[in-house]
Amino acid sequence: MPEGAGADAVWRASGQQGLGQASGQHGVGQQSGQWATGGAQSEWSGSQTGAWAAGAHQPTAGAPQQGWPQGEWRQGVPQQGTQLYPQPRREPRRVGFVVGVAVLALVVGGGAGVAGGLIASDQRAPVHNALESAPPAKQTAAPAGSVESVAQKVLPTVVQLQVRGRSSAGEGSGFVISSDGFIVTNNHVIEGAVGGGQIQAVFQDGRTATATIVGRDPTSDVAVVKAQGVDNLQVSELGRSDDLRVGQAVVAIGSPFELSGTVTSGIVSSLHRPTRAGGEGGSQATVMDAIQTDAAINPGNSGGPLVNMQGQVIGINSAIYSPQSSASGSGGSVGIGFSIPIDQARRTADEIVKTGKATQTVLGVSVRDADDGGAVIADVVSGGAGEQAGLKPGDVVTKLNDRRIDTADALVAAVRSQAPGDKVTLTLTGGKTSQATLGGQPVETG
């Protein structure tokens, strides 16, 4: 340790004021003034005689020494005059140095911690709060061809039908085909009102009106009712069903489970699906050539429109496939729904509006399933279209035009998809073909 450094360190570490003297062979002198370390001041003065040694410098005893001892009492500041050395404290000299280092370390460490905290704070991501964000601009017009735009166009034309009969009550849907109140629906929706029941039409704008049955066709499950005392109704736009494609997007609208104005969407899952109105409990007389869709259809959707993405009606929602269980009975939608093609429904509805009756397209034969696929002719009606085409009992029809026939219901559905007077080509087993002009007969409603 350099001369004077130990005492100087002790005084600076203690931070106290006082007087001190030291004996040693380093000269005699006096010094007065101030020196400080760590913020404390210490005034000192005194005299010194004798010899003392520190480090490698040991003056001869009693020899006067002039000038400064080796080492500095104040950092970088020379002292004038004579000097006496302060008496060292009892603590070991190196303690002051260690304590000083510790204090310095604490100061540096604390400063580094603060700086590090500031740096870390500066690196944190800014906080964003959604509640402080301004609401977005209000939506404008719906994009053309979207489900939203279809709903806006079609919903005002869809009607909820509440039906009360003498022994039952139910509800279904329909759609407006004339501004003065003609509404198309399913026969099975309004059938309960036959013979004295009541039908209430509830429109999307909240208006209600009593409706009466104009006519109905149980074989195609199409009916027309007329709302009384209304005018200026928004009318549905009818499309076509002969150019539909599997995978085409569609929207179904109706009143499932009495929830009026419900919109669901999906695709055309299949075409020309033979389906019996009323399910498998229905007779062959009620087979329709259905559009299959996965748009959700549930009880109450019956009679509502199935529309394309231009908002044109391409079918009437009529039936669903719903597995039955002994515990729950018939359930809801499982993604398999059936609609009457609008081409067939339009022809029937037009006849009903004009005449109050519907005409059924017929081939003039009765059929059953063939063991190896196809429809077996069981009986031929005298004078009917089948007899005129040369069909005989036992013939098996495998195609009608380009459409494959693999069951009896498939032949009935294919015939019903045509209009009376249409000419068709029938293909029989063995490749034989026959030309037939389809007939028609009035539908009996009882």
Describe the structure.
With 446 residues, this protein is α+β, with helices and mostly antiparallel strands. Helix content is 18%, strand content 30%. Strand 23 (423-428) and strand 24 (433-437) form a beta hairpin.
Write the layout of secondary structure elements.
Elements: H1 5-14, E1 34-37, E2 40-43, H2 93-123, H3 147-154, E3 158-164, E4 169-176, E5 182-185, H4 187-190, E6 198-202, E7 208-217, E8 222-227, E9 237-238, E10 249-254, E11 262-276, E12 287-293, E13 305-307, E14 312-320, E15 324-325, E16 329-330, E17 337-341, H5 342-355, E18 359-362, E19 365-369, E20 375-380, H6 385-388, E21 396-400, E22 403-404, H7 408-416, E23 423-428, E24 433-437, E25 439-442
Parallel strand pairs: 9-14
Antiparallel strand pairs: 1-2, 3-4, 3-6, 4-5, 5-8, 6-7, 7-8, 10-11, 10-13, 11-12, 12-17, 13-14, 14-17, 15-16, 18-25, 19-20, 20-21, 21-22, 21-23, 23-24
> Strand count, sense and closure of the main sheet?
6 strands, antiparallel, barrel
**CA distance, first residue to last residue:** 128 Å
Rg: 53 Å
User: Rough shape?
Assistant: globular
Please state roughly what percent of the residues sit in beta strands, choosing from under 5%, 5-15%, 15-25%, 25-35%, 35-45% or over 45%: 25-35%
Unreliable runs, pLDDT <50, ≥5 residues? 1-86, 95-108
Share of residues in helices: 10-25%
Spatial sequence of strands, sheet with the most strands: 3-4-5-8-7-6
What would you call the quaternary organization? Answer: single chain
Number of strands: 25
Individual helix count: 7
Integer average pLDDT: 79
Structural class: alpha+beta
